[in-house]
């Protein structure tokens, strides 16, 4: 699907960060963008910005992706008003920092509902629309932590490992349908994500981070090229390659790295 112009593209988690910039990039390419997130006011602000910049007026559809009924209604509205989606960008997500043994049950529920169930629900609702059209593109915004271990991020890693498995399985399952899959595994991105997840400010302060605008452009470029996997960060690429080819050595290395990071963050 090399051209995004005039395609109906649903972006979840569009109210801030990466989702915000994805929506703006899509609008610049002439796509018909469906903005979805829980915060209506932020979505309306984004819609106004897109229109002011000369983009096609987007559809604003607030929804909690972790709520099946809300996702079904989102899909129904998109199909009724715009004929269905051709691209779904599963971007909505949240983080949780802390030892698994100490995380409240509510935090576990919220993270799994958004990161995993939300991705499954949206894919389940919009995939049939694409199948009926005989074309489409599913984009899964995961994380390098979907392949690499991270102490005190076990819950988050678990959801992203699951998203990776979903994307890889669907890539095989949908080969003959005209529907493409792109799996994105960003490293650190400059958004409000870290603060919201409660991660200490010093945790990864010495690691390079990319701007949300830059990562969004890389993602849209991968969609235009029908690229299956995108790891936007060189450091992430090296870490994943290291773990795949030298798993035992990598395990010891990552243990040492996170022990050091833990000491530094406690010192801050």
Short description:
52% of the residues lie in helices and 13% in strands.
From the alpha carbons, calculate the radius of gyration and give it in angstroms. 18 Å
What is the number of helical segments per DSSP (H or I, 4+ residues)? 9
Distance between the termini: 47 Å
Low-confidence stretches: none
Known CATH architecture = 3-Layer(aba) Sandwich
The counted number of beta strands is: 9
Whole-number average pLDDT?
91
Whole-number tally of structural domains: 1
Beta content comes to 5-15%
Element pattern in H and E:
EHEHEHEHEHEEHEHEHH
CATH superfamily: NAD(P)-binding Rossmann-like Domain
Task: Give the biggest beta sheet.
Answer: 7 strands, parallel
Shape designation: globular
